[in-house]
Amino acid sequence: MNVIKSKDVINILKRALNLIDERLINHGERVGYIIYKMMEYENKYSQQEMLDYTISALFHDIGAYKTDEIDNMIKFETRNIWEHSIYGYLFFKHLTPLEDLAETILFHHIDYNKLIKFRSKHEVISSYLNLADRIDVNKITSKNIVPEKFYRLRDIQYSGHALDLFHNAQLRYHILEKIEDNSYQEELNQFLEKSVFTSLEKEQFLQMLIYSIDFRSEHTVRHTITTVSVADQLGRLIGLDDKDTYNLHYGALLHDIGKISTPLSILEAPRGLTAEEMEIMKNHVAVSELILKDYIDEEIVQIAVRHHEKLDGSGYHKGLTASQLTLPQRILAVADIISALYGVRSYKTSFDKDKILSILTKEADKGKISAEVVDCVKKFYDTLMENVRSDCKEPLQKYAAMSDSYESLYNQFLELI
């Protein structure tokens, strides 16, 4: 079963991140294209190496989505410019199959004369990424291929080899002209379509995106893991076939992807949401549909975006009724509620078993959620939640390790720089 294609994983990442700030993903695409053409001219990398380095360049600023520094980062005028490099490094190292390339992201803002002191095995590509990033941010055009100020900083801020390589690649491939007329996008997309990921690698990339919605929020991470765990288990217990089980798993994994556009002040409000804030929060479902459509099997999309619908038509975002909601969609709706009730927030503790089952029963009796699914939950609740705790253990340990690593790396980084 191969519902999600490798190229579509990249497209989902691009579309989702573009909703945060289009400057960054468009910036990432241009930088990725520059790196790709530099490597093509150099003619010493395998196609797989070129793909991996280009993908890393494409998402080299993913850490900025968690540091509230986009404006300053684009201007390169903040002393905390390293924060997003460290976050991006941690995302790639711990959450993607490209962990070996994470250092290219960590070092992409380091001056060349300092970079060489780290003796990184990815020093060369890091120097290319540093130059490509500055070329794009400084809006270098085909009329001024590399300004004199860049050459004055040869082997100081920029690698002399990288400067010469870009100059030669520009003369051969007209990189800047293609960026100026946007024709580079089709060429870049055609190259990226050669990527082939395993099922595990696809899931890793998608998890990176989901975790990046708010890396600083353990609640967000725990909610996704719990929802997926409960949904997977209920699907098996109720007897879904292999296709529906697969679809339910990915629908659960992606069900809150639209929250990438939800303001952090709402995601992490230290209280219940106001009516106005709730309307903004509800919009995450429509955003999820916008991100996923065209790239994922429609059944997965609809499982993901219907988790707030109710059987009586009182849910959102389309007010659907029982006849329009499939069993996998009903299962995810219940799993999401269980996760929300079980989770800890600043304004609520985790609800105990009796309270959770009482709420679910009342909702089922009112005809809002599936009685069949709730009966299954009641019958197997203890096993379900024991497995949730087990499923959450490793990801949350990884999350904690990443948080600790950030603080340590940040302090070490500033001392060395």
TrEMBL record:
PROSITE patterns associated with the record: HD_GYP
The organism's place on the tree of life at top rank: Bacteria
Ranges of residues in domain HD-GYP: 198-393
InterPro entries from the UniProt entry: HD/PDEase_dom, HD_domain, HD_GYP_dom, HDIG_dom
Record-annotated membrane-spanning stretches: none
One Pfam family cited in the UniProt record for this chain: HD
NCBIfam families linked: HDIG
Name the UniProt record assigns to this protein: HDIG domain-containing protein
High-level lineage: Bacteria, Bacillati, Bacillota, Clostridia, Lachnospirales
